[in-house]
Amino acid sequence: MSDKIRVIVSGAGGKMGKEVVKLVLQEDELELAAAVDRSSAGSDAGRLVGLEDCGIQVTSDLEGALAGAAADVMVDFTIPQSAYANTAMAVKYGVRPVVGTTGFTPEQIEELDKQCQEQGIGGLIAPNFSIGAILLMRFAAQAAKYFPHLEIIEYHGDQKLDAPSGTAIKTAEMISEARQELRQGHPEEEEIIEGSRGGYYNGFRIHSVRLPGVFAQEEVVFGGFGQSLKIRHDSYERAGYMPGVKLGIQKVVGYTGMIYGFEHFIE
Q: What's the CA angle centered on 98, arms 97 and 100, to 5 degrees?
């Protein structure tokens, strides 16, 4: 591997993908090996993200890029329906996947871990690359030891495809590791309108808000006798995720196996 980490960006024409392309082109430690996107194929990757032409033409052929670009890492921000296939393909070609797309099942993550182990490479699936969001998860898991009654509310734009968000699911998983299952609310409560109490997870509820004009926020609300605690994180723009993406790219080259959760890269 050269001094620079060569990166393929999958989903380069998407909103997050463009930020990743911009990051890779502007960081001295990184080098753009290929940019993959069906809708933007044929465009110069630099021009696509508002920078000078870089000489890398966007392609629609991910497998061709993985086979021929001599890349070290593939960053994938696409859609849940294609994320598993993209990740497995990267591992097949010995390219370390760093994946921000959500929707993986535990069985898929386990299978990808096995494939990474067989190839002797590392991989990362991160529902959220925001350092602030990771801290929220950690603080919420700590608080749940003392405030076991809680609910999660997550807010995203109305074009988000999955609900709840991968961040909310990861938050719920980390809370559940620190808190025994406790079924909350009145045992005879009844939903007059189906779904009004939110999704059920390990005894507590997750609520997904989808509205235009909203970017990404998450709030964990804890209730106790005579008091409540709220832990909230707000993201205002996609550029805020890029320090985490860069760290993920740099760290994954030193791991073997599939890592689930960006929190493992933060001490």
A: 130
Residue indicated by tokens 């870089």: 54
Digit-coded pLDDT (tens) for 158-211: 999 889 998 999 999 999 999 988 888 888 899 999 999 999 999 999 999 999
Question: If pLDDT is split at 50, 70 and 90, which confidence band does 1 have?
Answer: very low
User: What is residue 258's three-state secondary structure?
Assistant: strand
Given 18, 156, 170, 207, the catalytic residue: 156
149 is catalytic: no
Which candidate, 248, 250, 246, places its Cα nearest to that of 263?
248
- Is 156 annotated in the active site? yes
Which among 4, 92, 145, 160 is annotated as catalytic? 160
Tens of pLDDT, residue by residue over 220-246, are: 999 999 999 999 999 888 888 999 999
Q: What angle do CA 245, 206, 185 make, to 5 degrees?
A: 150
**Do 214 and 165 touch, CB atoms closer than 8 A?**
no
